Each structure stands twice: as structure tokens, then as C-alpha cells.
Amino acid sequence: MDRVRAWGSWRWSVPLVSGLLIVASFAASAALGAEMPGDVLMVAAAVVAGWGIVVKAARALMARVVGIDLLVSVAAIGALIIGEYWEAAAVTFLFAVGHALENATLSRTRSALAELVAVAPEVAVVLRDGHQVEVPAASVATGETVLVKNGAKVPVDGVVIDGTGALDEASITGESIPVEKTTGDQVFAGTVSMGGFLQVRATGVGADTTLARIIHRVEEAQDAKARTAAFMDRFSAWYTPAIIVLSLVLGLATGDVVLALTLLVIGCPGALVISIPVAIVAGIGRGAKDGILIKGGEFLETSARVDAVALDKTGTLTEGRPYLTDVVSLDEVWSRADVLGWAARAEAGSEHPLARPIVDAARAEGLDVAGLPEATEPVPGKGIVATLDGRRVAVGNLALQEDEGVPYAAAAGVVDGIAAAGRTPMVVAVDGRLAGVVAVADRVRPDAARMVADLHAAGVRRVVMLTGDTRRVAEAVAAQVGVDEVHAGLLPEDKLEVVRDLQARGHVVAMVGDGVNDAPALATADIGVAMGAAGTGVAIETADIALMKDDLSKLPRAVSLARRTVSVMRQNIAVALVTVGALLAGVLLGGVTMAIGMLVHEMSVLVVIGNAMRLLRRRGAPRDGGSATGRAPDRLDVRDKDRQRA
């Protein structure tokens, strides 16, 4: 019984039985020299292949939907009534074959989702009361210790609390190079241990894991309709009834029932209907395999029109981890170590991101920076003033020193030279006396320049850098990476205005940021992009595009994938329309029969499907470094708001 059910549910069972009956019909007619046995078998073939089509058409009519199944059903039943048994069998058989091929192809294009589901772990080894216990992965409780051995799948999201190992994170980030993990590192469910032994404290289990969120997002995205797909649905809703009316009018006008029925078959917009969904599913599936989550077809289409990309500097173009670069003494009373020591002790009471690299560098050089200042006074946009051992220490930009009444002329040249090199200088003064200058810098990502070039090659006309840093520092970074516009000294609300300004100039804007300070700009942009979203549930759920790995090369790849997908959609629509137009002309001019028309129609469906399948092949980001529009990027330095701390 189970085998019978399995056979009945197999997508090829109906076309196979119908095809065998057609072959048997021709054989019987030839062997017996009579038409009756062959006609019976041919009618049986039409019934086997057409029964499901008629049922679907009836259900659609009950829901007030006139679709392709109705066209084929009317044509097949009409052909049987007028004795065109071969035409009826051929039409239903070919349509059944086409339907099976469509299902097989959509299953193939959804392979990314199937692969993600396949990597979801089913069991976990948990440490309970000192014993290793194997339990279903979904039953692990948050906070429990999970053991990950060589070759095993990580069953939960968590943090390594002991051990070392290497994990293949391809299912999450799209990169197959194993990542070394040690104490304090984050791990994700579905990744695979390539060696070592890890003890992991579970922080996300079941539906709360990154893998589960990715599966949910890809599933929703592949089912979401693009604007073009929604338009095609509306078009088909009018087109199909129009073909029925046209066939009826033609039949009544000419008295040729076969011609009218042939027109019904020829007018099937099957390739047109499937042209958009198959491309969207394939494009989103390809992106998921590469660690690029696209929220849905609408955002895929919008991404294809992006011609301006706004990038936050810190953490996107740069590594987001500043380090100490310079310590300059400007008074013989103070040595280099003294200047660094005063700056580090003052910054120990600061929460500014630039404070940490100064403190860490002082500790690394063996300076005593223990304890906190007796008093700390942050000066927004300028620096910090602290009381140390009864002495007033000011660390910040020249504006702060001017407020403190410090003669800073000797520091101006040093500050200008450091800033011109792309580093952030901070002047140190003790009790109103100039002591020296310290400077920090954020390393530019080694692949930032390549990413900007690839964006231009993908057709992006303007790449814009947004930063709260000073103009000189921003310009130095911009010179290294090759962006087209520099907006410096920005507050979060200023970034929003820059995005609006780009949109007002006619650009379709993608904004890349961390989702916190950049939240207003991300929300306003046509496409919001979150980088390094693995493990960040909010980013995966809210971003229009989520790049699972903190990898700049994925950004131009996402834009290129969107453009390729939309291009395939347009090609598919053209193929479908040209095929239908040519067939309609062939019917009206004569020479195209019902069977030939359905054969050509199904061939066009296969062409559309095969074209969409090309999206499943992985391609690298563009590498020619030139602008796809043929325009050399020009540099435009835009407003400088030195409000932020230098």
C-alpha cells in the first residue's frame, strides 16, 4: 500500500502512464488495423493526463479564478467531443509533462532552503550532572553546556566556554573555510566541527537559533511576490478570460471549432506566469547559499535599481578597532611615556571609543594606569578634562585647549600633519601647559578599495562615505578606498539628511550600517543593508538585505545578483510574449495545430526555466574595476561639520 501511495505521489507517474497509453494506442491501431481500440486507448490517455487538470480548473473556478488549467481543460474536452482524440491526449500529456518539469525545477531552485533544513542538527550531547547525555537538539535548555566533538554539528547557538576547534560555517555565512574557535567565541547551530573539542554554553535553541531565523527568512522571501510578479498576476487575470472570449468569437465567426480550441491552447500564458517566480526563487536561493539574505522579491527588484550606496566609515570601510599610532612630546619637561601616561589615566574615566586604544597601549608599554581619575568632565565634541593627583589634565582637540586657555600654537602644526595622514590627533595639556599629542587611527579594511571598485563595476554610479569623524581623517580614508563623495562630521540625523538628498537627486539608495547609530538612515534608504548579521536576530528580521558575514565582497555581489535576477526576469517575459505572439499568428494564418502549439508552448516553459536556473551558478563580484556606465567616478567633498571629537 505504501508503494502505491508513493507511486501516486510521484510527479512523473501521470505523464508516464499517459505516455504509455498513447504509445499503446498507436501500436494497437497499427497491429489490429482498426481505429476503435486505438481511439479508446487515446481517450484513456487524455483522461489520465487531464483528470487532475480539470479538477484544478474546477477548484479555481469555485474561487473565482480563471487560469491556464481552464484553458487546457476546455480545449481537451472540446477536442474529445468533436472526435480529435489525438489532439486531446497530446495537449493534456504535454501539459502534464510541463507541470512535472515545473515542479522539479522549482524544487531545484528551492535547494538552498532544502540544504539549510538538512544541516539543522537533530541531536545534541549535553553535560548534565557531570554526565554526557544525548538529547534532541530542540530540548536543550538555554544556559546548558553542550559538547561539540570532531565531525559533529553544533546543535545550538552559543559561546565557547572551554576547548578549541575549527568550524565550517558555510551554512551560515556562505564561506566554507573553517573558522578557528576558542574560549569566548560565538558559534552557530548547523555549523560543523572540522576538528577539536568544544564546550559551548547555549544562548539560542530551537527556533531562536540563527539557522532557524535564516530558514524562516528564506522561506518567506521565496514566497513573497515582487512588484513585477504581482503585475503579471493581474495581467493573467485579465488575459486568460480574454483568450476564452477571443476563441469563442473566432469559433462563432468561422464555424471552425478546431481553430477555436487550438487558439485556447496556444494562448496559454504558462511561460509568462512562471517566468517571474522561478527567477525570484532561484535568485534568492543563490543569495542564501552565498550568505546573502534578501527579504523578498520586491527588495530584489529594488536592489537591481540601486545606483548609489552610502557606507558608514567606522566598522564598514574600516575595521572599527582603533589603535595608538603616535605619541609626541612638545615640552621637555614631559617624556613620551609621561604624555601617554597622562592621556591614558585621563581617558580611563571616558566611555568614548577612542579612549580604549590609548589605555590599552599604555598598559602594553608597562605604564601604571590603574584606578580612575578623582573627577571626570566629558566635553561633547571636544574631549575630556580629568583631575589626576590634584592636577587638571585636558585631552582633546584644539577647541578644547582653547577653552582651557592652553597656548596650543606649538601643537597646531603637529595636529595638522597627523590629521592629514588620516589619523585622529588629541592634544594633551597638564595644568594649562601643553604637554604633547597622542593619535589613534582605525585601520582601513584591506578589501575596502576592491569593494568600491566592484560596486562601480556592478553599475553603482556613486559610492558615498558617511562619518562623524573630521574632514581630514575622512578624506584620508576616502583617498585610500576611492569613494565618490565624503560627508564628514555627521551626527545620526545628518546621515538621514544625506540619504534624503541623494534620493532627491534621483538616486536609488542602499545604506550600509550597523543598525544602531545608522537606524534613521537605514530606515529611509530604499534598501537597508546589515553586514555581519550572523547571530543578530534583529538584523536578519528587519534588514532588507542581510550579509551574514562581515565581508565587504558580499555587498557588490548582492547588487550584481539582483541585477542578474531582474535581467533574467525580463528575458523570460520576452521569451514568453514572443512565443505566444508567434503561435497566435501561426494559428490565425494556418499551419499550427493544437498538439504542435502545446509542444512549442511547453518548450518555451523549459527555456524560461532553464534561463532562471543559470542564477543558481555562483559568480564572483565584478573584477574590472571600471564603471558599468562608462563614467569615471568623480570626487566630491561635501560639507564638513567638525562637531565630533577629533
TrEMBL record:
Keywords: ATP-binding, Cell membrane, Membrane, Metal-binding, Nucleotide-binding, Transmembrane, Transmembrane helix. Signal peptide: none annotated. Residues 120-219 form the P-type ATPase A domain. The chain crosses the membrane at residues 12-34, 40-58, 235-253, 259-285, 573-592. It is found in: Cell membrane; Membrane. PROSITE patterns: ATPASE_E1_E2. Pfam families: E1-E2_ATPase, Hydrolase. InterPro entries: ATPase_P-typ_P_site, ATPase_P-type_domA, Cation_Transport_ATPase_IB, P-typ_ATPase_IB, P_typ_ATPase. It is a multi-pass membrane protein. Residues 620-646 are annotated as: Disordered. Residues 632-646 have a biased composition (Basic and acidic residues). The keyword Transport does not apply. Belongs to the cation transport ATPase (P-type) (TC 3.A.3) family. Type IB subfamily. NCBIfam families: ATPase-IB_hvy (TIGR01525), ATPase_P-type (TIGR01494). This is Heavy metal translocating P-type ATPase. It comes from Nonomuraea harbinensis.
